[in-house]
Write a structure and sequence with these properties.
alpha/beta; globular; 5-stranded mixed sheet; 3-stranded parallel sheet; 282 residues
């Protein structure tokens, strides 16, 4: 590959993501969706499959990097946002248990064994047939399989109807009843945990229309609609669904933006707050 092409590719990639992944050569991981996942901070995200035995070591490296903006934990995985500056924030969805509401879908260690090395970046990724297998399981379970129709059909997978989906998931539960019960309990407890370690944010003293113009805020909160909520509803949504909610009474908000001069200051204050209050790993 010509040097000028390589330089352009590196310039587009998230530097923070590069630095973090460079520290992981001894860990058992793969980047699920390929190298395009590293491109363009504030747009794409990295889907990282990690062996459960390496999750503690990975979390420690994230802490030591000093790049953590904020993190949220869930059953079987964690969502990280890392970055050195406002326009280089990168989302990493790190998973060691592929499940649907606790019901096991695929064995991560088996998928890791299928990993290959990308010749351009020298990072571990998955071959396309395995990506299709993951897309079949995750997108049929949670929804969104239609978007992957061409990939699924290319590798012999299909989009399940509602009745087929129920039958398929029921079969998973029957084959792994104990694991499914433990998983469902773990999912429930992970939501309970968000009450005191929330993944969303309530803000006051600012217009939702102003926050909606921010690429940074939309990326951090996954492009969910930013709008005004009653305070009680905003509390529930921000804790359980990771939304950013504008509430009418700033004194009840997590963060009062009343005196922010402009959108840039709103972004900076939200990021500082997340770094200080929401960087919970493990």
């Amino acid at each position: 590959m010509p040097d000028e092409v390589m330089a352009t590719m590196l310039a587009k990639r998230s530097l923070c993501a590069e630095l973090l992944l460079a520290q992981m050569s001894d860990l058992d991981y793969v980047i699920e969706r390929g190298m395009e996942s590293i491109s363009m901070p504030l747009q794409s995200d990295i889907d990282l499959l990690l062996s459960e035995r390496d999750k503690a070591s990975f979390a420690e490296r994230v802490r030591a990097s000093g790049m953590l903006v904020y993190a949220s934990n869930a059953y079987g995985g964690m969502r990280l946002f890392i970055g050195g500056k406002r326009d280089d924030i990168k989302r990493i969805d790190c998973t060691w248990n592929l499940h649907y509401r606790g019901v096991p879908l695929l064995n991560v260690d088996r998928l890791l064994a299928e990993g290959i090395i990308d010749t351009v970046t020298d990072l571990k990724t998955l071959p396309e047939p395995v990506i299709a297998e993951i897309a079949f399981a995750i997108k049929n379970a949670y929804g969104g399989a239609e978007k992957y129709r061409s990939l699924l059909e290319k590798h012999g997978f299909s989009i399940l109807s509602s009745s087929q989906r129920v039958k398929w998931l029921a079969g998973k539960v029957l084959r792994h009843p104990a694991t499914s019960m433990i998983g469902a309990t773990g999912v429930f407890l992970s939501y309970v945990r968000r009450i005191w370690r929330p993944t969303g944010l309530m803000v006051g003293g600012v217009s939702p229309a102003i926050l909606g113009r921010s690429e940074v805020i939309r990326y951090l909160f996954q492009s969910r609609a930013i709008r005004r909520y009653r305070t009680v509803v905003g509390f529930i949504r921000s804790r359980l669904t990771s939304d950013i909610c504008v509430v009418p009474w700033a004194r009840f908000a997590d963060l009062d933006l009343t005196h922010a001069r402009d959108l840039a200051e709103c972004e900076e204050r939200i990021i500082r707050y997340l770094q200080g209050k929401r960087a919970h790993l493990g």
